[in-house]
Amino acid sequence: MSAYVVANYTVTNPEAFEPYVPAVLPTIAAGGGEVVVADFESDPVEGNPGHVTGVLKLESKNAINAWYTSDEYEAVKGLRTDNSEGSITVANGFVPPTD
Predict the structure, then answer these.
(1) How far apart are CA 25 and CA 22, in angstroms?
(2) Which residue ranges form the domains of the chain, and what is each CATH number?
(3) DSSP of 21-85, one letter per residue?
(4) What is the model's pLDDT at position 78?
(5) Quick one: what percent of the chain has pLDDT higher than 70?
């Protein structure tokens, strides 16, 4: 079952954050993932979300964990965590109920 990483955050230091996107994309591809959503001007509808929303699709939660804890991602993660505030959520894809 596919699983998704849903990121929502506000960039607090744009200059230091800038290298993150080009650095993280190869790690996502190497982990077998794809970027489904990447919006730096998200429109909030409810609550108090940040202005950046990203959704990644990988083959499973195990694949997400392998990517998230990989040496390649660990090497660039600080560019995001040190320069933004927000949340990351991991969720399984929707499977419709059967009768």
Answers:
(1) 6
(2) 3-92 (3.30.70.100)
(3) HHHHHHHHHHTT-EEEEEETT----SS---SEEEEEEES-HHHHHHHHTSHHHHHHHHHHHTSEE
(4) 98
(5) 100
